[in-house]
Amino acid sequence: MIEPDGPVPIYLQLADILAERIERGEWQPNRAIPSETQLVQEFGIARNTVRKAISVLRERGLVFTVPQRGTFVSPQANA
Fold first, then answer.
1. Which of 9, 43, 70, 75 supports an S-S bond with 29, CB 3.0-4.6 Å?
2. DSSP string of 22-48, one letter each residue
3. What gap in Å lies between CA 29 and CA 38, rounded to an integer?
4. Class assignment of domain 10-73?
5. What is the model's pLDDT at position 76?
6. Quick count: other Cβ atoms within 10 Å of Cβ 30?
């Protein structure tokens, strides 16, 4: 759950929530994660915040983005 007034920036909170879903195996390797639009609707946050969270996941090696296709769970993400 996102805490808008908490000390941790919202994008980092979201990145941690999404990383947890990947690590639990909720999203399988080489499968797309929900779109930015779906995440905006689910969490009620701005698109730029979602983009920053996905960028953090890319830096952590948990996801990769394919232009015009979407963002996918990295093959080694929950190995």
1. 75
2. HHTTSS-TTSBPPPHHHHHHHHT--HH
3. 19
4. mainly alpha
5. 81
6. 10
pLDDT at 51 over 70: yes
Lookup: tokens for 68 = 């015009």
Rounded CA-CA distance 55/71 in Å is 10
For 38, phi then psi, to 5°, come to -65, -40
pTM over 0.90: yes
3-class SS at 69? coil
Q: What is the pLDDT of residues 3-32, one digit of tens each?
A: 999 999 999 999 999 999 999 999 999 999
Two structure tokens written together for 48: 């730029």
